[in-house]
Write a structure and sequence with these properties.
alpha+beta, globular, 3-stranded antiparallel sheet, 188 residues, 8 strands
Length: 188
């Protein structure tokens, strides 16, 4: 199972007025904006935990962003593992010390309506309380140790590309972990 967690940062809260002539900023413009907003990004990153609700009674940690020398439009082969899925990650202790059956009794499932859905073929559900707040905090702490990298977009044919505009114009960050133990705990 591949678990992906994403945190979104808007670099410097910059608002750009889009006109027909400036729909797609040039690479030079993006590089200039990156340099101008580097300080703002760090200040916003430090302030991010204060904007989030507490988890398990505590403020969230500042996200650990792994520095990468990637450029906008850079193409990666999946076999290069740019998402660092194979990088070490420690499974949180709750995986071994809690009873999933006890937690499943607290789980809540809400069915969402889908227009024109064929019964039994398409569905949407919101499942909450799959994990306790303590378990969520433990996962976030452990993935933060591994660190976040910029989100890449699938380009097909086992390739990924860095395209900020595709992910909402924000500098989206993600952590990928591949853990059979966590998957077994969640799906068990």
């Amino acid at each position: 199972m591949l678990a992906t967690m994403r945190g979104y940062l808007n670099p410097g809260n910059i608002m750009r007025k889009k006109t027909r002539a400036s729909r797609s900023p040039t690479r030079a413009h993006r590089d200039m904006m990156d340099k101008l907003t580097a300080t703002a990004k760090l200040e916003q990153l430090d302030a991010l935990p204060w904007t989030m609700p507490p988890l398990n009674g505590n403020m969230l940690e500042v996200p650990n962003l792994v520095p990468v020398p990637w450029k906008e439009g850079q193409l990666f082969q999946t076999k290069q593992d740019p998402d660092r899925t194979s990088a070490p990650w420690s499974v949180p202790d709750f995986v071994w010390s809690t009873d999933p059956v006890q937690q499943s009794a607290k789980t809540v499932c809400i069915d969402l309506p889908i227009r024109n859905a064929v019964p039994g073929r398409r569905f949407a559900k919101v499942i909450s309380k799959v994990l306790s707040q303590e378990a969520c905090a433990a996962i976030l702490e452990d993935v933060n140790v591994k660190g976040f990298t910029p989100t890449l977009v699938s380009a097909g044919c086992e390739q990924k590309v860095l395209q900020r505009e595709v992910v909402g114009g924000c500098q989206a960050q993600q952590v990928n972990v591949d853990s059979l133990d966590l998957a077994a705990r969640l799906m068990g």
